[in-house]
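Ticket closed. Logging final result for Lipopolysaccharide biosynthesis protein.
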Amino acid sequence: MPGFLLRCRPYLRNPQLLSLAGNLAASGFTVASVALLFRLLPPAQLGVWVFFLAMQGLMEAFRSGWLTTAFIRAYAGAAPARAAEVQGSAWMLALVLTAGPGLLGLLAGQWPAWNASLSLGLFLRWFPLLLALTLPSFMATCTQQAGQRFDRLLGLRLLGQVAFLTGIGGLLLLGRVSLPGVVYCQLGAAALTSAVVLGRGWAGLCSLRHGSAAGVRELARFGRYSVGSYIGSYLLRSSDTVLITLLLGPAALAVYNLAQRFQELIEIPLRSVTATALPRLAAAANRHDRAGMAALLERQAGLLTWLLLPVVVGTVLLAEVPISLIGGRQYLGTEAAGVLRLTISMAVLLPLDRFTGLALDVLGRPQLNLLKVLLMLAVNVVGDLVGIHLTHSIYGVALASLPTILVGFVFGFRLLRRDLPVEAGGMLRVGWRAAGRRLARLASVVFRRPNPSTPALPLP
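Final structure:
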């Protein structure tokens, strides 16, 4: 094996790198499928598809909110017997959280008034089945994240995205691209992914017999607050979608969503770093190591802020390039590039805000994180309404993001400082030093000869 690969091999097993690779790969396929759909579907139908995904994501946020943080918090570092009980109890609760919304959706779908809307009718017809098909893959994601098996998460994400993109490609070859066909591709990809994780035992279905009523109550008690945070966070992202659909129409939503798609450049590292940090923060909290939690929080949030800054600057300068690549030249004369510049400029504050909420959950203060998220949601909805009224365009929605992020960060950080000795300036200083060390290690891997007697240092 060449010397360069020998030097890189220890780093390729790093959990943060595997998590980042999984999110990069999944988002890459997502962007490819979105680029295809922007070229194959009319703007009105594309807006209906975006609305369908937004509402489906809301249902997923309901299930994830009850379980993800509560499960990882109880599962990480637990003894085998305790881990089996937590996993079995999580399966029990997940079945209830899947069946309940599914039955409500089936009942609502029988009401003719709902089916009068193409967007609502499509969602109510298919979301109960899609929610059931994604249950095994959801449980597998929770289990593998808690066990820090990010190599398996990489495979899981790739499988779902490749299957969906393959389905879209098949429709294109057959000349049968349509909105129902895209939904069938989504259902097929979900079914395939869940079948694979069940076959490989990644979802831990066999632990269902170890679940207990006490375990379900424990998870549900914590989840009653974290679900509010999850749903509030999702509504914070999707409230723009709903208000644009109602006040400006599906075509305007397609343009706004195109600009938001490039926000994946920010969301990819955010999801990757928070996914790897959550089990470590939970383990430190279970050890009552507040100093260790504060150090990890400052390093990860500050490092991510500095690493995202060049991406933000580059996107502001070259916003038309990604708009053309993803949506095609027909979107260059729209508001998409301007909206992208506005929203990504504000996104540099997201790492500090995201880690603040994560730390509140891990510290057992989900009710405080819920309060923060609800405050941000209220500011965003009011800002959207005022912005649309004043500008009569999606620019007003984009401008509403700034007060939303600022209010959330300031309020959440004040709450966090009651429990952890952290400083915003400290995050940036520690993050700057961590970024320097990271770049120095990367340079040593690329440019220096390997020393067989010296093991590679782990990435922070």
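The radius of gyration is 22 Å. No further action required.
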